[in-house]
Amino acid sequence: MQTKRTIIISNRLPIRIEKQDGKLLFIPSEGGLATGLGSYYKKGGSIWVGWPGYIPETTEEEQLIREELARHNLIPVFLSAQELEDYYEGFSNEILWPICHYRLSYAVFDKSYWAAYQQVNQKFCDATLAQHITEKDEIWVHDYQLMLLPQLLRQQNNYLTIGYFQHIPFPADEIFRCIPWRNELLKGLLGADLIAFHTYHDAQHFLNSCLNILHLSPKNNSVRCRDRRVHVEVFPMGIDFEKFEQLSKSADVLSRVQALQEQYQNRKIILSIDRLDYSKGILERLAAYENLLQTYPELRNRVVLYMLVVPSRDNVAQYKLLRDEIDRMVGHINAVYGSDEWIPITYFYNSLSIEDLSALYVAADICLVTSLRDGMNLVCKEYIASKSQQQDGVLILSEFAGAAKELPETIQINPYSIDDITEAIHLALYMPRREQQQRMKSNITLVKKFNISHWVKLFFNRLHEIKREQKAHASRKLQGATLKKITDKLAQSTRRLLFLDYDGTLVGFQKEANAARPTAAVLQVLADLQSDTANQITIISGRPHTDLRKWFGNTDYFLIGEHGAWSNFPDGQWRDKPDMPTAWKTPVRRIMSKFTNRTPGANIEEKNYSLAWHYRKVHTGLGLMRAQELADALRYLLPQYGLQLLLGDKVIEVKINVLNKGKAALEIVEQYKPDFIFAMGDDSTDEDMFFELQDSAVTVKVGNKQTLAQYYIENQVDVLTLLQQLRG
């Protein structure tokens, strides 16, 4: 029997391949993701799927790479040079990266990039499925290069366990909607069971995109996607705290620290470490440093900016321009402010070993992070972990880095404000050691607790919870053995009463209420059911009774309109409830009219004993906001007049409390005395019916929402199929 495996899928493998002197070198990655997930993908036959960072020159070389990587539980996805150019450099880094980092003007919406992105995501899907994935396995997809992958996998098996983590920011929906293929990308992500981000704002931006682009209404940080609820969570990524803590204490690193301090003659070291990218705020940092030297000339020869920029995407035009400008600004500052004995900026454009990085962290008096937009930024956490012994040093952190949401005991700056950065550096340089230690101690405690292992554990614990919830919901879905049990019970009965809601159940919702007429298919399936003398159909609706009479007046159905205010039971003659008060309508109408005048597309529907405020034609976000405001404004009237507030699908309805579908249904049941009751509806008004009938009826919710009903079906489209199955 196959054990449960963890399938990690990312754009790159944790081992990269280089070729030197005709020999392949397999080099372990030092990245946080590789470190954090190392213990997961190596156990129980688990695997990691990704690009190995190399294009094989021959089929023999490709096979050699596959065999070597297989020893490490790694599955390579080989990409051609053209695929790398169009999928990685193109769609991923010239469309998604600038959009997610709010650089819309940098985006290049090339159709060939989109075709390559689809093709490569499919390659990753095929490579994953080739590993004979089962429902026992757990799949964790990482980052923006693979946004289509969750749905591609879901299409192959609806019961897979799939998680996704976005390591870069997710932009506001008004920015994300600029992508021509935004719908496909969102639907791709919604193939996952759990979608996670570093920050609350990223998660909310994603949910807003689902709402305003796909018109899926979020609820409790989740989105209903057919028969699944996709959960959206916030799990800030941590680092391998212990590794950096141990490095900072090693003799090798401490000797390098001493060498650095001697080299810079005990000047204050301001450290910045970034990958070459326009999102890192490198130019703004340089401008602020120059401003510091101008504003506070006494600091000259007393500080040094040690700036390490790691090479990245040198062949992309925007990055070439950025590097050229960095070179120019560094040269300018060093030439204008430097002297024979002091160079203001030590600048390196390369990568360093982990030992050299650790030494820099330990030696630095200030770590300066000025990201204009950053998913998390782990440099600042590595700096904190490296200070666990001395517990000194000051972290200056951009408020636009994800880490800023976790680390309040830092000096937070607006990276677009040169003066703000300048003053923060000045404050840090003169901060008393005691205050430094108090701040750093707090940061160390947090970073140590929320380390990379904790992050992985939180993610998988939540994913397991979600799958358990899905399994519980699946047992309530009306299908298979559950459906057969009900149809068998129905077949054994001789006097059946079927309560059917109208809007959202028998017919779909329409923007125009009058357009929601029963279709020929609806009329036929109802007629077929009623033709069985054992069946009695009852249509129970909040609609005006005049609509029900117009559409079903020539049938033998029992009809209940306006939540029970009107009924043709038992003899087909319409009667309303006598002596129902209507004085409450005046204040309610006044409040609803106020909101109608403020909300384009909203309208009021008046019934005999209820008032409904419809906002189906209102822009989604505005409609939800106004609906909440209206509900709050109406609540104080409810106890005063004995009213009930109903929050339906794009409608808020106020009615007399004594009228509801539950009481109306119960009156018919008590007189009709059926031996089988079936009740089906889709919204909150039907919950009264489910409550009153819960002990004696088969109750079905249309849509897998929180409900008192015993069972559910996915959506309104499945209603007719279910009714046909009841017909037999």
TrEMBL record:
<dbReference type="InterPro" id="IPR003337">
    <property type="entry name" value="Trehalose_PPase"/>
</dbReference>
<dbReference type="InterPro" id="IPR001830">
    <property type="entry name" value="Glyco_trans_20"/>
</dbReference>
<dbReference type="Pfam" id="PF02358">
    <property type="entry name" value="Trehalose_PPase"/>
</dbReference>
<comment type="similarity">
    <text>Belongs to the glycosyltransferase 20 family.</text>
</comment>
<dbReference type="Pfam" id="PF00982">
    <property type="entry name" value="Glyco_transf_20"/>
</dbReference>
<dbReference type="InterPro" id="IPR036412">
    <property type="entry name" value="HAD-like_sf"/>
</dbReference>
<dbReference type="InterPro" id="IPR006379">
    <property type="entry name" value="HAD-SF_hydro_IIB"/>
</dbReference>
<protein>
    <submittedName>
        <fullName>Bifunctional alpha,alpha-trehalose-phosphate synthase (UDP-forming)/trehalose-phosphatase</fullName>
    </submittedName>
</protein>
<comment type="similarity">
    <text>In the C-terminal section; belongs to the trehalose phosphatase family.</text>
</comment>
<dbReference type="InterPro" id="IPR023214">
    <property type="entry name" value="HAD_sf"/>
</dbReference>
